[in-house]
Design brief:
Layout: H1 2-18, H2 20-44, H3 49-60, H4 63-73, H5 77-95, H6 97-126, E1 137-144, E2 149-152, H7 156-165, E3 169-183, E4 189-196, H8 200-204, E5 210-211, E6 226-229, H9 231-238, E7 248-251, E8 254-261, E9 275-278, E10 292-293, E11 296-301, H10 307-324, E12 331-337, H11 338-342, H12 347-378, H13 380-388, H14 393-421, H15 423-426, H16 444-469, H17 483-523, H18 548-563, E13 583-587, E14 602-605, H19 612-616
Parallel strand pairs: 4-9, 6-8
Antiparallel strand pairs: 1-2, 1-11, 1-12, 3-4, 3-7, 3-11, 5-8, 6-9, 7-8, 10-13, 13-14
Helix pairs in contact: 2-3, 2-4, 5-14, 6-12, 6-14, 6-16, 7-10, 12-16, 12-17, 14-16
């Protein structure tokens, strides 16, 4: 039966692999006992004992050759041969510790750089986001061509209209980053927070660790004020007490009921977010306007609905809104995949880093290949001796490949150790919107990359010396070297050096261009003074400063006290800092002229105090 044959081979393989010593003794006993039996058989056929012994010796051959033949045909012989090759390869490298150390460290640097950058790219660009069905998540941006804003946050009323009229989305949520003051028991803290629509967490598909999501009418005007805590804040401030659910904390002086705790590591929409509070714009909460663009909108597509269909519906809806509201005359919107959007500013730089690391790896491989070519010249005699003693070219090939793989494996181990030490540094390069959600890690994908690198480089390092080993002229004396072999090695060394120099020049020039670009960017005049200018963010609560008069009094006092500080020349307030994406807009009406009513008089608006422009050194024409 075929199955019996398979199991028999498996049993023989296990026995041969784990009982090698016993197997060798059995082979020796059988081989050394067989000549006596053969001699007796020859004598029985009429031969003398001397003739029978001579005939048996000729028929059997050398005992060592018979043993080798038996080893070659037994089940699992290839594994035993591989083990011998590995042991011989290790001994060969140990005999040359200088060569082995230089080769392994050189490969380790190249592989470490490549695997480290790949882990960063894999975590940011390739791995799915840690949300439910992340391929259906999109960011929706508003376009305001009049303000030269091809990608800006949405106004609250436009978001409400999109949610009601665009049918391609299963959910359309929004959020805006904020800060909240946590007071009460313990030291007061100013915490990063996010004001989110109640459906944000269901849209992302992230369940709270403890408690529940926001539910209507939470977030509505007059509704119960509630909050969800981050895992870190829950652990640090409340001692991981599950009883905090249902208790009240004070945020900006207002009581908020804690209804949930988010899982460890969840910090969306930005690193350091520790609180989430609801705001339902559909119910009239928050800023109700079309001229203030501050909402980040995230959508989940319905099953089997394409991004193209969603963009087509957005285009249709925004066109209708532009016909209805003058403020929207130049407004449009588009959706992009969430992961692509969050990593949009990092993609090009990451790919450049990967290219540079691959070039470094190629330079390292060229270095090691040059060392192997030089070392191969010293092993001509060894190869000649082994071939003349009966070693086949296949055995030579196998041995050289094993040695190449050992070098590559050593380099991979060193490279992975170096790569893991850089993960904390590389995490700084993760886009701010993804920090906390993704990070470079040593996982199966990275180990697979290292294995592929080991196989490819090991194959290359094994073939480099083999190319010359196969050209050995066995008719030449063992202590001489053919001129053709020497010339071939010189040509190979020259080619490797030329390739290595070419790659180094590419890396050098690329680095120079990158430095030149950074210097040029630093030399660009932004239109205002940046030296010795400090900024701070101030947010006033409605509880402490309920009216515009209260707020203005606070701003005047701050400017007065800051202006009296030693070393301060001037100070000012503004609603939005220069070159920030958050903008405000309002119609400009010239006295004595009628309002055109078509939105053509809407302009970007920043409210500033009298000394703001002089503080930045902006001239007034």
């Amino acid at each position: 039966m075929p199955s019996l044959g398979i199991w028999t081979r498996v049993l023989h393989f296990v026995r041969n692999f784990f009982s090698r010593n016993q197997l060798e003794r059995d082979i020796s006993d059988e081989i050394y006992g067989y000549p006596d039996l053969l001699i007796e058989e020859k004598i029985a056929q009429g031969m003398s004992r001397d003739d029978a012994r001579r005939a048996a010796r000729l028929e059997i051959g050398r005992v060592d050759q018979v043993k080798e033949h038996v080893r070659d045909v037994r089940v699992g012989a290839w594994l035993d041969a591989l083990r011998q090759d590995v042991r011989f390869g290790v001994r060969t490298l140990i005999r040359r510790p200088g060569f082995a150390t230089v080769a392994v460290l050189t490969l380790g640097i190249g592989m470490g750089a490549t695997t480290a950058i790949f882990s960063l790219i894999d975590s940011v660009l390739l791995k799915p986001l840690p949300f439910r069905e992340p391929d259906r998540l999109t960011m929706v941006w508003e376009v305001r061509s009049r303000f030269n804003a091809p990608r800006t946050e949405a106004s609250s009323l436009n978001y409400v209209d999109w949610e009601e009229q665009v049918q391609a989305f299963e959910n359309l949520a929004a959020y805006v980053n904020a800060y909240l003051n946590l007071t009460g028991a313990g030291t007061p803290e100013r915490l990063q927070s996010a004001m989110v629509t109640p459906n944000l967490f269901p849209t992302l598909g992230v369940d709270p660790l403890v408690g529940r999501w926001f539910v209507p009418p939470e977030g509505s005007p007059g509704g119960t004020t509630v909050a969800i805590l981050s895992y870190g804040l829950w652990q640090r401030r409340f001692g991981a007490d599950r009883g905090i659910i249902g208790q009240t904390i004070r945020l900006d002086g207002q009581p908020h009921l804690v209804v949930g705790i988010m899982p460890r590591g969840f910090q969306f929409p930005r690193e350091g977010t520790q609180l989430w509070t609801p705001v339902d714009y559909r119910a009239g909460a928050g800023v109700q306007a079309r001229g203030n663009f501050f909402l980040s909108v995230i959508g989940r597509l319905k099953p089997n609905v394409s991004l193209q269909r969603a963009n087509a519906e957005l285009k249709t809806v925004t066109r209708k809104l532009a016909q209805t509201y003058p403020e929207n005359i130049d407004s449009s919107a588009f959706a992009v995949p969430l992961q692509e959007d969050l990593a949009r500013n990092a993609r090009t730089s990451f790919l450049l880093l990967l290219t540079a690391s691959v070039l470094v790896l190629l330079i390292a491989c060229a270095n090691v290949a040059g060392l192997l070519v030089t070392r191969g010249a010293e092993r001509d005699r060894e190869f000649s001796v082994r071939t003349s003693l009966g070693g086949s070219r296949i055995q030579l090939l196998r041995q050289l490949l094993v040695e190449g793989l050992l070098l590559s494996a050593g380099g991979a181990v060193v490279g992975l150790l170096l790569a893991t030490q850089t993960f904390d540094v590389l995490e700084i390069l993760v886009p701010n919107s993804l920090r906390g959600a993704v990070a470079p890690t040593l996982d199966l994908r990275l180990l697979t990359l290292a294995l592929v690198a080991v196989l490819l480089t090991g194959l290359a390092f094994g073939l480099v010396p083999l190319r010359y080993a196969l050209r050995l002229d066995l008719r030449s004396p063992l202590n001489t070297r053919t001129s053709g072999s020497a010339a071939g090695r010189r040509r190979a060394q020259s080619a490797l050096v030329a390739g290595e120099v070419a790659l180094a020049v590419v890396v050098l020039f690329s680095t120079g261009l990158m430095i030149r670009t950074i210097l040029n960017l630093q030399a660009v005049d932004p239109g205002f003074r940046v030296d010795n200018v400090l900024t701070a963010s101030v947010q006033l609560t409605a509880t402490d400063y309920p009216t515009a008069n209260h707020q203005n009094a606070f701003y005047r006092e701050v400017l007065d006290r800051v202006g009296r500080l030693p070393g301060v020349l001037s100070a000012g307030f503004t609603t939005f800092l220069p070159y920030t994406t958050t903008i405000g807009a309002a119609p400009v009406i010239v006295e004595g002229r009628p309002d055109p009513g078509d939105g053509s008089n809407i302009a970007i608006l920043r409210s500033v105090t009298p000394d703001y422009l002089s503080t930045l050194g902006v001239p007034v024409v």
